[in-house]
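PROTEIN DESIGN WORKSHEET
SECTION A - STRUCTURE
LENGTH: 139
TOKENS:
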């Protein structure tokens, strides 16, 4: 399993777009076997998502995460644990030790936008998944 943390100055970044690097720890049989640090070099969110998608990360530890970003990360195969804070390596170690990390209430749900023709929490217009999550009558 690969566990990653979005990091800024050694601690979990408040938001993914504020992170300067990603720490990725590979775990086998409950023990960390490797650690890799990927620099984000001020990359935009699209570039960051591309870099992350190439790493086969299973779990991403993060600060605040919006619903659209959470869904995007889920679609590229990552479980997101929002609401993490503090030392990134300690958070990863805690998760690997079976501790509860993060706070699910840190998923940021945007206010409903009356001008949004989809009236949808995620962007069905782009994903075209026909997931059925659109409210009745708003197809």
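SECTION B - SEQUENCE
RESIDUE ASSIGNMENT:
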């Amino acid at each position: 399993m690969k566990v990653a943390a979005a990091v800024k100055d050694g601690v979990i970044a408040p938001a993914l777009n504020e992170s300067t690097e990603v720490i990725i720890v590979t775990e086998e049989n409950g023990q960390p076997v490797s650690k890799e640090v990927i620099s984000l070099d001020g990359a935009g969110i699209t570039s960051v998502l591309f870099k992350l998608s190439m790493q086969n990360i299973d779990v991403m530890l993060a600060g605040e995460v919006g619903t659209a970003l959470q869904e995007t990360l889920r679609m590229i195969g990552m479980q997101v644990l929002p609401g993490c804070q503090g030392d990134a390596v300690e958070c990863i170690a805690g998760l690997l030790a079976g501790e509860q990390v993060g706070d699910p209430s840190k998923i940021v749900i945007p206010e409903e936008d009356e001008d949004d023709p989809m009236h949808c929490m995620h962007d069905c217009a782009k994903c075209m998944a026909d997931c059925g999550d659109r409210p009745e009558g708003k197809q």
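SECTION C - NOTES
The first strand starts at residue 2 and ends at 8.
The CA atoms of residues 115 and 138 lie 13 Å apart.
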